[in-house]
Amino acid sequence: MSxxxxxxxxxxxxxxxxxDGLLLTVKGPKGxxxxxxxxxxNVEVGASEITVTRxxxxxxxxxxxxxxxxxxQNIVTGVVDGYEKKLELHxxxxxxxxxxxxxxxxxxxxxxxxxxxxxxxxxxxxxNNVISVTGIDKxxxxxxxxxxxxxxxxxxxxxxxxxxxxxYIRQKAGKTAAK
Length: 179
Hints:
By secondary structure, this protein is α+β, with helices and mostly antiparallel strands. Helices cover 20% and strands 36% of the residues.
């Protein structure tokens, strides 16, 4: 039995969970999320917890068991607390600015980059160099943060670029003078 999959997902007081066929709908104080359950996995919604079981021990079902349970846990956590990723800009002249409905990034290119976040994602700019990406969908928050980071990945020589808050970049030695 999967160690992750066998643990039930507890349902907080403020959350309502309903299952209609293979569609699981979770409503909470921050919003509503839907999840399509894989047909090989059984999900039972109880009064205070959700249990995930698998029909047999084939490799695919064993792999899906813990994954489905983790996805359901992430959805329940998202509608209650939400998720947040912070990005930092490092470099001379690197700055971020929120204008109306888009994020304006100056990252050392000859032009500025305008990024429009998808629906369900909120972006806040703290100061000029810290970007906060928040939302209720963990996958979407991570995807948007990775997209912003991809505009100028941190480079290992001068340590310039967009990086996650707390991310460590190992600095490489540059060229040495010829002797």
